[in-house]
TrEMBL record:
<feature type="binding site">
    <location>
        <position position="253"/>
    </location>
    <ligand>
        <name>Mg(2+)</name>
    </ligand>
</feature>
<feature type="binding site">
    <location>
        <position position="82"/>
    </location>
    <ligand>
        <name>ATP</name>
    </ligand>
</feature>
<comment type="function">
    <text>Nucleotidyltransferase involved in the post-translational modification of proteins. It can catalyze the addition of adenosine monophosphate (AMP) or uridine monophosphate (UMP) to a protein, resulting in modifications known as AMPylation and UMPylation.</text>
</comment>
<feature type="binding site">
    <location>
        <position position="84"/>
    </location>
    <ligand>
        <name>ATP</name>
    </ligand>
</feature>
<dbReference type="GO" id="GO:0000287">
    <property type="term" value="F:magnesium ion binding"/>
</dbReference>
<dbReference type="GO" id="GO:0005524">
    <property type="term" value="F:ATP binding"/>
</dbReference>
<feature type="binding site">
    <location>
        <position position="244"/>
    </location>
    <ligand>
        <name>Mg(2+)</name>
    </ligand>
</feature>
<feature type="binding site">
    <location>
        <position position="175"/>
    </location>
    <ligand>
        <name>ATP</name>
    </ligand>
</feature>
<keyword id="KW-0808">Transferase</keyword>
<keyword id="KW-0067">ATP-binding</keyword>
<dbReference type="GO" id="GO:0070733">
    <property type="term" value="F:AMPylase activity"/>
</dbReference>
<feature type="binding site">
    <location>
        <position position="105"/>
    </location>
    <ligand>
        <name>ATP</name>
    </ligand>
</feature>
<keyword id="KW-0460">Magnesium</keyword>
<comment type="similarity">
    <text>Belongs to the SELO family.</text>
</comment>
<feature type="binding site">
    <location>
        <position position="253"/>
    </location>
    <ligand>
        <name>ATP</name>
    </ligand>
</feature>
<dbReference type="Pfam" id="PF02696">
    <property type="entry name" value="SelO"/>
</dbReference>
<dbReference type="GO" id="GO:0030145">
    <property type="term" value="F:manganese ion binding"/>
</dbReference>
Length: 480
């Protein structure tokens, strides 16, 4: 590993140094060898992955630390939060010379644990491990994980579960909530902290006339792009609190997430989200709300003479959110449908298709695949309102007339995954893993490595469809 330790150069009020506390009887869960290669792990380091991913081995180059931050949870100010069960154990360079954080989740309690036990359970670790891998392979910016370990130690949740640890990788663990903590508790740190954020994550903004405004705009744009990509693959994060969004716009801290199966825009995967704040369809507006809240925390960086103008400029920077989101979403939706994004009716046609999926409760992923395979009759057969589908198809075919359909079809193959991580797939892998069998985790890991390619030897019929509607859905709780 090539260390590039930079977080510890910040004011020490922003973190607490502490060592991981290993679990009893730690043992291998799963290892992402390709990611370890990308992160330039040596053969010796790879051989020690279980020790590293269980907190038994740390590095002299980096003293593990828990970050402090704050946040708005479900729209309410939650005060001080922080890494209550995870530790930053290294910052290293990947093959592209990009700095990547290694964050060990489940490593024991910290001063920020509040009432929590500092642990993570195998169930939630497997869910985060597979989803991070799936999102990366789908081309959605996201944290990932080098590996996870299980243990013999019981951890109490609704029932007694197995403790586990996961070594998460991310280009950034600085959350919007970091700024909230600083302004609430140590406002004198804001200037230097923001400068470091820009230097580390958006160095190109240093050249701008106003680097802070340029930085704000980039954070807004990257977040909008990330959300557009979530919507396109049908990903619902589940807990879009301000402490779970980072400043680079890569997906982080998804616990009760889900990949959409039957298309329901108001779907809540997180069963603890009683008011439906974080439904799939709310994600763009919640991201906008979080960013608006965050921009307020940059206002103190104005100089006394330009305060009003700076406030206005920050507010204006948020105007980038919607067009950026729409540009990426529209382009992606057209690609999924095999429609030219420059055509004035393509977006409407896409919306008409989504309305069919919604009214007919069709599977989001599978329906795009059927369209790609031109199985129009089969889709129509699944519709109660056949007329609605015929109208869509007439418009769809008329837009595609006289277009380069080979090229458009090629785009569809790149945009429509064959495999997503359905809740019941993760659940089967979890139940086996809890009995010590990680073969299903491994199978899903391989399958989701190449989500756009049909893998007949690896796939199972249940990977391709939602559970029948008379089978109760897997309940995904916030507890993890
Ligand atoms: P989350 O919604 O999972 O991102 O967690 C919100 C906050 O609660 C973060 O500050 C976490 O570190 C903390 N937290 C969650 N679970 C635990 C736990 N079991 N022990 C200690 N802190 C926790
Ligand atoms: Mg969190």
């Amino acid at each position: 590993m090539q260390f590039n330790s930079r977080y510890p150069s910040l004011n020490s009020k922003l973190y607490h140094e502490q060592m991981p506390s290993p679990l009893k009887g730690a043992k291998a869960g799963h290892f992402n060898a390709a990611l370890a290669d990308e992160l330039q792990w040596s053969e010796d380091e790879k051989a020690e992955w279980v020790e590293i991913c269980s907190g038994q081995k740390t590095f002299p180059e980096f003293h593990p630390l828990a970050m402090v931050y704050a946040g708005h949870q479900f729209g309410q100010w939650a005060g001080q939060l922080g890494d209550g069960r995870g530790l930053l154990i290294a910052q290293i360079l990947n093959k592209n010379n990009q700095t990547i954080d290694l964050h060990l989740k489940g490593a024991g309690s910290t001063p920020y644990s509040r009432m929590g036990d500092g642990r993570a359970v195998l169930r939630s670790v497997i869910r985060e491990y597979l989803a991070g891998h799936a999102l990366n392979a789908l081309g959605v910016p996201s944290s990932n994980s080098v590996g996870f370990t299980t243990s013999e130690q019981g951890v109490q949740r609704e029932k007694l579960e197995l403790g586990a640890m996961m070594l998460r990788t991310s280009d950034c663990h600085i959350r919007l909530g970091h700024f909230e903590w600083i302004n609430q508790y140590q406002p004198e740190l804001l200037k230097e902290f923001t400068e470091k954020c820009i230097e580390w994550h958006y160095p190109e903004c240093l050249k701008a006339e106003n680097p802070i405004l340029a930085f704000a705009t980039k954070v807004i744009q990257n977040t909008a792009i990330m959300i557009a990509k979530w919507q396109l693959v049908g990903f619902a994060h589940g807990v879009m609190n301000t402490d779970n969004l980072n400043i680079t716009g890569s997906t982080l801290d998804f616990g009760p997430y889900g990949f959409m199966e039957r298309f329901r825009p108001n779907w809540i995967n997180n069963h603890s989200d009683y008011n439906g704040r974080y439904t799939y369809q709310n994600q763009p507006s919640i991201a906008h709300w979080n960013l608006w809240n965050w921009l307020n925390h940059l206002i103190p960086l104005a100089t006394p003479e330009n305060k009003e103008q700076f406030k206005q400029d920050l507010a204006d920077s948020l105007e980038h959110f919607e067009p950026t989101f729409l540009e990426y979403y529209t382009h992606g939706l057209c690609q999924k449908l095999g429609l030219p994004s420059f055509h004035k009716d393509s977006f409407d046609c896409g919306m008409a298709f989504l309305r069919i999926l919604q009214t007919e409760q069709l599977d989001y992923t599978d329906s795009f695949l059927r369209l790609q395979r031109k199985e129009y009759e089969a889709i129509k057969d699944d519709c109660l309102d056949r007329r609605q589908f015929e109208d869509f198809l007439a418009q769809y075919e008329s837009i595609r007339t006289n277009q380069e359909t080979d090229e458009l079809d090629g785009e569809m193959f790149k945009a429509n995954p064959v495999y997503i991580l359905r809740n019941h797939m993760a659940q089967t892998a979890i139940e086996l893993a809890e009995r010590g069998d990680f073969s299903e985790v491994d199978r899903l890991f391989k399958l989701l490595s190449q989500p756009f390619i049909k893998q007949v030897d690896l796939e199972k019929a249940e990977d391709l469809a939602p559970l029948p509607s008379d089978v109760p859905e897997v309940m995904v709780s916030c507890s993890s």
